[in-house]
Input
Amino acid sequence: MTKVLVVDDERKMRRLLQILLERMGIDSVAAESGEEALRCFQAEKIDLILTDLKMPGMTGLELLAKLRELDADVPVILLTAFGTVQTAVDAMKLGAFDYVLKPFDLEAVELIIRKALEMRQYRTENRYLRERVQQAPAFESLVGSSAAMEAVYDLIRRIGPTRSAVLLTGETGTGKELVARAIHGLSPRRDRLFVPLNCAAIPADLLESELFGHTRGAFTGAQSDRTGKFELADGGTLFLDEIGDMAYPLQAKLLRVLQEGVIERIGSNKRITLDVRVLSSTNRDLGAGIRAGTFREDLYYRLNVFQIHLPPLRERQQDISHLAAFFLARFCQELGKPAPALAPGTCQLLEQYSWPGNVRELQNLMERAAVLATGPEVEPGFFRLLLPQAAATAAEPAGETLALEPAVEELERKLILRALSAADDNKAGAARLLGVSERTLWYKLKRYGL
Output
């Protein structure tokens, strides 16, 4: 929620500016001195400051200099009836957004306020986009016409325009983030940020800082203030991927934020009121987590206002050929080459495969096909070389041994290779698919020379 701090030693001027802001639909807080303004700024989340230049005690320029020490980005507009060229130059050198002479035209000031707030929003969004390590998913549309997916589409259309929390469930690689983006795209928040955060990819001791942000010096290594994902998503949508992996103590803090709509950065007691829609996802059984004491029941009900379950690809057999053709055409377009057709036998082979990595595994396979395939049509033999399960069933060796240990080792080796392929060679993801620890997986990789 946007809030403006109005600073002026004259009560009538403070009230005039607050009435203007109220007419604009913007919350405001007032201070009659620079010293009081600093206290307000440190106690609340302020998006813009309107301050008089000449005031008893701390002047507007001195206040601006102090504010720049606390926040280099917050826009400040100076108002004065005693303007000179030198004070205007000094204000701009200190980073003032604008310099307005009294008496002023209210419409002109309203325009300046809107421009300042827009700049604040653009800076926040641009900083977030620069900091993002992972790019947004390559495909912004959902593909599939099976009955299971039609049910998903229907829920997205119904839930999207609301502000309700949604829990997305399903196996790894089924497209939960894509569905979350579709929900955001159908909501009134579509023009604000969609901020994804993978709770499983960030160490537990750093996840709190990623969520809520921190102040300089809050802990070792906190060399500057950092905006958390909740603040970045203000007015938009926060997507908490793999929420089932969040540490139990942090779940209580998340629950409080969802209940109150207020956060505090680590190292600060400033309460920041936010308007964020929270979507979450998991590939775990959260009910089992509640029974085991690893997931909070009250948080589960807060997140699970609506639930959308995404079926695994093996249960969407009629969608497999359409998805494969879609991905193949898209990757070929990126490579600047014509997309080959999928032979009927190829489609049958793909539909018979179990797809442990779901849509993500199919997407990775089609990317390899786009690079390696030649000719106008992709034959089944091409994919038998790339699908471990298909290659294993294509030709059983004659004179197969009945010895148990080598057979088990060979099966284990094949399963590890399949999991690595499904997880795009990500060891942590492959370990989750196999149901073992990452340390165990590394041991097996070394044992089998993989």
